[in-house]
UniProtKB/TrEMBL annotation:
InterPro entries: MetalloPept_cat_dom_sf (IPR024079), Peptidase_M12B (IPR001590). PANTHER family: ADAM A DISINTEGRIN AND METALLOPROTEASE DOMAIN (PTHR11905), ADAM METALLOPROTEASE (PTHR11905:SF159). Keywords: Hydrolase, Membrane, Metalloprotease, Protease, Transmembrane, Transmembrane helix, Zinc. One of its GO terms (molecular function) is metalloendopeptidase activity. Residues 38-231 form the Peptidase M12B domain. One of its GO terms (biological process) is membrane protein ectodomain proteolysis. Gene3D superfamilies: Collagenase (Catalytic Domain) (3.40.390.10). This is Putative metalloprotease. The chain crosses the membrane at residues 16-35.
Length: 345
């Protein structure tokens, strides 16, 4: 085979493989990896507002399992980058105290409690750097339930913040999540791409389409060409360098691979969305959704055909056809062998 011949002819050359814009690879290696990965160890730091919000919903699933599923969903939004593939490993979860948060959270209590993202991100980065427990993590994400209020920024990303193209030097991020609904997944996915050098899709070179991850509006149905090329450039620029994502020591604290749809096989999705609409609307009810490909479901106040209700988008990973799952309420192609929901049901 070609692989064998290259190994035989170049036994002493240091391995390097480049990704090309059209999806191919350039080989200059004695050992060849079929898939080129950027593998990042991610630790979540959960503040007291996040943990409290989760307890109020009385979900029985452990926090660690929620965040393991959360990170899998983040990776799902980066799936269209094939070379390199972005792989995310959960290295651990830390719950902070109010005393610890006083060192890195800048909050305002004038009208309601809000978080200043610029100050908080800078202080959080300094706090992470001082703590040796984060030494083996590539990215440390602060998750909060507090409303983020940016007084100085452009407002491109209102619920997620990080340092652009600083994955291995300033690998910290901040995102807002409810603690129960995986609503912060998209913001974390955006910030991972942002840290890897992906620009926002708002310029002439990277126009806003409303349907890409790095756009400011609309549903992120995939990655723009700009995002894909930025990830290729990040990988190629460091192909023969000893960068953070090549570290072998990445303690894996994650559970079996699953997506939010599997999580909500055990937790009540309707009551999570609304405290009164706790029943899935039955057949005959105006809010009942019979077509799985719509990626919506009706939640009702009781289990009758005339009950009042509302239609919500279904959790990511819900099957919607042969080899398809719902991703951000869009029925999307997804190979069945990767679909844990279909395997577990």
């Amino acid at each position: 085979s070609v692989v064998f011949e290259v190994r035989k002819l170049l036994p002493k050359m240091k391995s390097w493989v480049l990704c090309m814009a059209l999806g191919g690879i350039i080989v200059g290696a004695s050992t060849i990896s079929i898939v080129q990965n950027i593998t990042l160890g991610v630790r979540f730091v959960c503040d007291t507002s996040f943990v409290k919000a989760r307890k109020e919903k009385n979900h029985s699933t452990p926090l660690l399992e929620y965040l393991s599923t959360f990170l899998n969903a983040v990776e799902l939004y980066l799936r269209e980058s094939q070379c390199p593939k972005v792989k995310l490993v959960l290295t651990g979860v830390k719950e902070t105290t109010e005393e610890e948060e006083s060192h890195f959270e800048k909050t305002d209590h004038e009208f309601r409690v809000t978080l200043d993202p610029t100050f908080t991100l800078g202080m959080f980065q300094a706090w992470v750097k001082q703590n040796t427990e984060f030494d083996h993590d590539d990215i440390v994400f602060l998750l909060t339930k507090i409303i983020i209020d940016d007084h100085v920024g452009s407002g491109i990303s209102k619920n997620g913040y990080s340092y652009f193209d600083e994955i291995c030097s300033l690998g910290v991020g901040l995102a807002r999540d409810s603690g129960v609904m995986f609503d912060g997944v998209v913001y974390v996915a955006q910030q991972v791409a942002h840290m890897l050098g992906a620009p926002w899709d708002i310029s002439d070179n990277c126009p806003e389409s409303g349907a890409t991850l790095m756009a400011t509006v609309g549903r992120p149905r995939g990655l723009s060409q700009c995002t894909k090329e930025a990830l290729i450039q990040q990988y190629n620029n460091n192909a023969n360098k000893d960068v953070c994502w090549k570290k072998t020591l990445k303690p894996d604290a994650s559970f079996n691979w699953s997506l939010p749809a599997t999580y909500f096989q055990r937790e009540n999705y309707c009551s999570t969305r609304h405290p009164l609409r706790v029943f899935q609307c039955p057949k005959g009810n105006a809010k009942h959704v019979a077509d799985a490909s719509k990626c919506f479901m009706g939640c009702c106040e009781n289990n009758t055909v005339d009950a009042s209700g509302f239609k919500y988008s279904v959790p990511d990973g819900t099957p919607c056809g042969q080899g398809k799952i719902c991703i951000y309420a869009i029925c999307s192609e997804y190979p069945e062998e990767n679909n844990d929901y279909q395997h577990s049901s």
